[in-house]
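User: Predict the complex with flavin-adenine dinucleotide.
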Amino acid sequence: MAAAGASQPGLDFDGLRPPTPGLTETHGSWRNTVRAFVNAEIAPNIDAWDAAGTFPDAIYERAVAAGIFGMGFPASLGGVIEDADLYHRIIFAEELHRLGSGVVFADLATHWIGLPPVIGFGASQLHDAVVRPVLAGQQRIAFAVTEPSGGSDVSRLMTSAERHGDHWLVNGEKTLISGGLRADYVLTAVRTGGAGMGGISLLLIDAASPGLTRAPVTGLGWYNSSIASMSLRDVSVPADRLIGVENKGFSALTRQFNIERFSGIAATLAMSRVCLAEAIRFAAQRETFGKRLAEHQVIRHKLVDMVREVHAAYGYLDQCVWRFENGDVPIADLCMLKVHATTTLESCAREALHILGGSAYTGSHRLERIYREARIFAVGGGTEEVLRDLAARQLGL
Ligand SMILES: Cc1cc2nc3c(=O)[nH]c(=O)nc-3n(C[C@H](O)[C@H](O)[C@H](O)COP(=O)(O)OP(=O)(O)OC[C@H]3O[C@@H](n4cnc5c(N)ncnc54)[C@H](O)[C@@H]3O)c2cc1C
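Assistant: Here is the predicted structure with flavin-adenine dinucleotide placed in the model:
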């Protein structure tokens, strides 16, 4: 491939992110901070953690010490960068996925989903009891919605909570809960009312409660994860652990899903850039049939198509961020963008591995990790079918 022109940034991970007016110097220094943490704490260990099937709890307090864990939370509760915006969240996801360490991201990020409803709608005593220790990296919170009977159709949720005087009695099953094995608290979606979306509430449950048992979920993709299934049998939960209004938990869930989607989109686009950068580097050096791979037209076109998809996605992402930050909630666009981003990652991961040929299968390779983790993003945070359907309804089709 010819050298990049004077006005063209390099074709590495950073150069492949198109410039955007939304990114300021503040975001640049935030990126440096997160990258330094990833380089020091995750990069040297990620292969060993994959092999061991776990990573040490100490990473939480190290993230706190690095000044990245409490991003966006009030300083009065132990947070940092109170005025963080969506780009701070996006950059965090991009930097952690530069290594394809999706699971470390998922476990380190559960408090961004679990804590905001507790802070916004929970009893004030939970600030000291729960929020501070979580933001100090000493305790952990997970967010449990999905059940063995299905995750896409949240309105069919079956885990029940019955009010008995000053407590709730909870019965049911949850599965695929990120960070669930390590969690001290589980923000849990339960059915407190009738059928459908109108009968759902959120309860903050102590993971050590009698009657709550956990088991690891192992399988494709995230090797070092602490994903859990949970069984709840007559688990007693104090009445003041209701987060928000009884039977109105669904709207709190959708707010969290929208924010989570930005992280998922950023993660997939970062991993797409890693794939692309590796493929470009390899194609520039490898020679076959008397010329460099990048000089074969089929390969050049593949690389250009990958750049095209990634750049288009970033343009769409910037537009969604701008609308969100200005008070709009562009649900249909966010759904369509997530589908675009996850399909872009899958095609970039496939094509990059293919361009590397057999060498992609030798030794430990971050493309290998990204290839197996790519599928997760097409499911978590809303599957592609469910998001297309939601977009269709929003568009009035
Ligand atoms: C790695 C990982 C981490 C996760 N972490 C969490 C977590 O922390 N907390 C949590 O609560 N959940 C978590 N989940 C669960 C995730 O949210 C669910 O997997 C997801 O919502 C899909 O639910 P399901 O797996 O039950 O699939 P189902 O809902 O059973 O769907 C199965 C398939 O059918 C398709 N489908 C469903 N409905 C339709 C339709 N109307 N039309 C066409 N196709 C349809 C789906 O797209 C999917 O392909 C995680 C999942 C993964 C893989």
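The mean pLDDT is 92.
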